[in-house]
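Sequence in, structure out.
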Amino acid sequence: MREPQKNRLPVMNRHVSLNDTTLRDGEQAPGVAFTTTEKLEIAESLAAAGVTEIEIGTPVMGVDEMETIRAVVARRLPVRLMAWCRMTSLDLDAAIESGVQAVNLSLPASDIQLAAKLGLDKAGALQVIDHMVRRAAAAGFFVAVGCEDASRANRDHLARVIETAARAGASRVRLADTVGVLDPFSTFELVAQLVVQSPIDLEFHAHNDLGLAAANTLAGIRAGARHASVTVLGLGERAGNAALEEVAAAMAVFDGADTGIELTALPGLAAQVAWAARRPTAATKPVVGADVFTHESGIHVAGLLKDSRTYQGLDPTLVGRCRRIVIGKHSGATAIAHVLSESGRDLDPDLAAAMVARVRREAAETKSTVTATRLVELYDGMCSEGSLIELCGSKSAVRERTEATVLRPGRMQ
């Protein structure tokens, strides 16, 4: 009998940098506007969490943006601070004035965007890239070239962009799925094809329009990208970006890859960004949502209590969380007994079936879980009812015995 084939997928690169763009691309989410203080605090938290590169903003936007960027630069955080720029002299001059160490010079790569936005053809785009990258490199910047809409661009043109950028002095090229049209398979194919031709590092930048940003990012990394753009909570325009917490946790789980991110810092970082963005975090948000390590189903809880691996793919302690068992419509006697035991109660086996029925009825009526406090109240009430019934039953038996004793002499007469 043939041995089953082992997984032949390439091993995920173990040395990948997650470059955070929460303060630039994340802030482009509708209605999000961070204050200078919030940007400073978020930048400090990102650095403390192990992020090594932060895309801090767009200097050419105006005085307020420039002052904020300068304030972050002045903190001298142990990270590379990058400014996002269009590939124009105006934007580059603003970046020089801001004091950042790195620039991402962005230019459309697809025919659609080159024509509609800039009126350029591919040859004209290559000339602009060569000129602006040389100028930025001469100014002492770490230079990355951003290929906007790379997912819809001609592959040969992308290869020429990479070659031109590298020759002019760029250290990295960013492949952006600007409108979120890739899937993991096409992402892998795109990145793998370009990696073998590229003399410099590639970065993948995903958008979540079809809910595939994190999956596409992992595919890009597995294909050979050494950098990936992420934002905390996947914050970003339209459906958002690849989430820092999802990509970092997934890399740790799948391949034990070390991104340098302190995973236990992610919940606090997510809460901080959610508050600053004035956006509530969904309870089901992977890694950081309130309910993602919460279990109600009786079958699941019974398995978890025997071996946590039965229904737990991501160890919550890895990301600074803990498992939680709640009681609801789908809970069984094992879960109820477990929660009661945490309150110093032992579930009477004779009451187990009735208790399960009572809990399920309450959960259905309230369309909610049953809190531990309420569970104890229900159980204590049921025990009291049982004691009363037992007491009444005992009194009835005594009365019957007494009546029988009184009547016997009469029968003998």
